[in-house]
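#struct-queue
[09:14] JT: dropping the first one here, sequence first, then the structure tokens:
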Amino acid sequence: MRTLTLTFVALLASFGSALALAASLQLTILAGQQTAQDGSRILTWTVPPQSVGGHLMVPLRQAAALLGLTDWPLPQGGWQVGELRIEPGRKRAELAGKPLHFKAVYLRSAGHALVDLSLLADQVSADLLPIDGGQGAILTFQLPVSLPAPLQGPQAHFTTLQASYPQGSAVQFVDRSFDPQGKPLTASWTGRRSRYLTAGSHRVCLTVSDPSGQSASRCHTVVITPVSGFSAAQVILKHGAPGDTFFGGEPKAALPPTVLGVTASGPTLFFSDSPERVLQSGLLYQAPLSGAVRVFAYHLDGTGLPARLLLLASNPGTKPVTVRLDRLGWAAGSSQGNLVGQSALLGYLGRPRRQTWTVQPGQSQLLFASPLFAQGSVISLLGSFQLGGRLTLSTALVASDLQVGDPLAQLPLLPADRSHIRGTFPQADRTVTLGLQSLPAELAIGSGDLGGPLLGTDAVSGRSVELKGNFGVEYRLLFSTAQPLAVALESAGGQYQGAALAGSSRMQLVPLPARGLLAQLGEYALISRIPAVNPLLAAASSDRIDLIPAPGSDLPVNLFFSALP
């Protein structure tokens, strides 16, 4: 059993200098420096440490003695130091029986063997903090009274490549966890971010587990320093991820952008939102349609029982008609309609859905049936269909106590309520071309400015109807910029949870916001950062944002265009 005194004998032999008795060591080690400093004491290496590919290499035998580890020579040449085994002649290195990349952990310099210091530090739970961009490290080590017991179970170890990072810059974590028996490990992090947008101390913890359920944890604090001259909003505009939120602060001098053109096109919108609170099983809306159709349905179950939403297509003609599904998103849940609406919108704007049916003459085809959702809950549905001929689409809500064979024949058509809309609206897409010569700029969506509200017909009553807010309308906003800019969405009318597609050749799906909801005027969610383009190529390289006002949320919303800080 090695004692504390013997440990210091090894230290004195290694460094050839007097070292006072202490409970711990904290060495500052720099690549290329012959000495390592512990407070006011100077310790001398046999050869200077070296930094190779992000690994700080130190003399193996000196470092092992420093940490109280014994190095045993191997019969075939090389060393066994704790769980680390190095055989230079065979270009082989192992940690607890697990192969390591030999060239990454071992180096020969001036006739001395150098090894990655982190491998030795991990075995005695020493803290190793990289400094100077990985060119050095601070080693903190509690001197053992006796040799540590053999490692048992998973070992959690990680660090960052720098002691601190400025707001918004990329943080690089290095996970050095391992299992002494070589078992595979799964890692779970809390507090870890690729970038931290607020200054201060951020606690990050790592837990690693092996297949048998044994686990180990380690935590570190990541220090984020403020960036001089940047507000919190500017940091997010410059460095934030899509969906990150911020407050705009003081009122801004933003003018509307130049609207170069608004074009109405696209599918017919089948809009089912009345009666919004459904008090009994019944048909909600039905209309004859053909061609491209976007279905929008948003209803609350007021039957007092769990219920399901149905979408059906019936063929009143004499020939079969095909129906192709292109996109579908739906969600149901508690009375938090904005969250349900965002989930449905994310599903709709995400991956395309492909399915085809053939509706025979005089027959009905079920295109969508939700599972039963809880009483009092909200359901939201968005679907994109291609109808190969004239069909009648119908939405119905059926409570769980009702067995329905043919809803079109057995369910009553429910009357609309007084405050919501149902109807059929042609050309439900708006392509808006913007000029952004002056920044900042702000554009209202859902206030009726861009071509006004959709006008359509309630196919049940034959009355003309107006779709205020244009829920279910897809806005395609085209623009180019001669300077880099950021685009964000502001909740201007209340609570908002939605989504958008943003980009140019490759579109990215962005939740707005990524977490929580926008709840007050002046709160923003970042959509995208847009690089500048050559003005001569602007027409061929326009960026775009595709936005559908989110079901269950409040309108209007503002799109905010700002030059990058």
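[09:21] JT: and here's the second one, same format:
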Amino acid sequence: MKKFVFQISVLVLAFFSCASEIFAERQISEEALIFKGVRNGVFTIFGDVGHGSGFLFDARGLVMTNQHVIANSNYIRVQINDDVKIPAKLLVENKDADIAILLINPKHVKDINPLRMSMAENSTDIAFEGEKVIAIGSPINQTKIITSGIVSKVEKVAIISDVNINPGNSGGPLINMDSEVIGINTFLDAAQYGPGVSGSVVITRSYNDIQHAIDLLNGVSPPEFTLLPVMPRDQYPLHALKKATEEKKRETKSYYVTGMKSTGNFEINVGTPPYLYRVEKQTELDVIKKRQEREKKGAAKQAEQYDPYKDLKEWTQYAGYHSPVVMFSIKPKVGVTTGSLLLNVLGATVAGYAGTNYYGAYEYEFKADLKDVSLYVNEVQQTEIRRGMSYEPLFFWNADKYAQHTGKDMARAARLTFRHDIFRPINDQWPNVQLRITSIDKSDKSIIVDLPQRTIEQIWVDFEPYNEALAFQSIELQVDGITPEKFTLQQETEPSKNKKTAFRSGETASKEKFRRFNKDNRDKIRKGIGIEEIKYYFGNPDYIYESKLGEKTAKSWDAVVYKYYLDKDTRFKHVDHQLQNTFVFYRGANGSILNNWTLQYEFSEENKDMKK
């Protein structure tokens, strides 16, 4: 028996020994090694219309992409990695070959190796059918991802492959197993069924453009060495999105700027994550009301209940949903043409004198056509995270018993994305935010629209949950300058029923109700003994202000931002949020949010002896 057990033990050890060797000998594919070596030189390219990909091919700051990626763009930006986005200049544009070469400041890429180009003389020598290749780019909402496949066919100016290419991949490199760029990923020949095939402009088409760009370098200065804002990598708190849709009444007028003031021949709307999600969900929530009533009547189990918030998942941030940003929509207004209006007035007048009925015919057009738009905060121009300039068609025909209505036109509109913190209050005041808009037919004259304070306040209120989330991620608890190692910060959605609270929800606390921690009781505090409630402020109390929407901002010492209690396990738990129908903004040194904070407290009635 002992011998049998011994043999089993030997076999088990042998199995784990072999398994360890197998895992230790795990092979990394050739494609993975190539991707690791070249990915730093592949960038995301942003134009006015959308985004694509590109790659560094010369250390002097030369970047290649497709011409259609940056077509009709006044502003071109290159994002090198998650944190670095920089301005770029268009150096060479070859519309026929769909090739563009950009110039960036070489200081930004001094530590990045340019991709190596294949120097074959013609397309027939550059690739062969069945050859393995990889594509690198930033499709849809992703950045720097790899797809692989084989060359299916080699044409005179294009390489056809089964590599997966999607919108956003355009301009990225097609690379062979020698780590050489053999093509510029350009188009997808999509099929109704199946994945389709991809096309890449053969790199030999760029040789003349490369030489032209190099010749131009001596006479062109690179863009300035500066950083531009990037899209946040986190998402707006999902629980706050759900809460925004469940509120019976919610402010909506603040987002429609055109409804509050004159905006010329343009319609201006502002969007924040909670507002946009609420608008998106309203129809669905209205549709399911009767279903929910039946569920309630029948005491339906949770598994049987319809969940309207099934789309609120953490992974959605990787698909580009619920980003913590502010969006502006600027569209030209639509109206009756002047000629059509005059003709109908004249026709109606004549018919009136004749005593007959008049059947009108009205033609509609865009009253403006967007050329450019910029956002200024306190007279300083702000760079948008993303800039989407699109052509909007106007094409319709309808009629009733009084008139027919037709519209045939096209104009440009814009969708701009900004960081939320540019709307924060500075030096005790809301910032002055301006949109400066020009129409293509009146490019020498700007329309200046001052954003209403009501809109700015609403933006800041909407981002309060996001600012809270940032605070929880970075806060460091200190008691008289000492950081207790055991203390952790946790949220609790419902107030504890076991704890007595000194203040009701919505009630503010005066300065006299707070006392600083007594240094003599520091040890007791660190052990969590005798303290029932903890209240604290973000920032220096001199920088805390309170205001109701639409009212003048006033300094206040009475703003209770959060209330926490300390339980026996020395954990801080969220009790409730104060300031119903009001908001608080936080400002630290140099205008930074949540720069520092001061902890205040109140002792329970049972521990009055601990008071100073």
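[09:30] RK: nice, looked through the second one.
[09:31] RK: The mean pLDDT is 75.
[09:31] JT: good to know. The longest strand covers residues 403-419.
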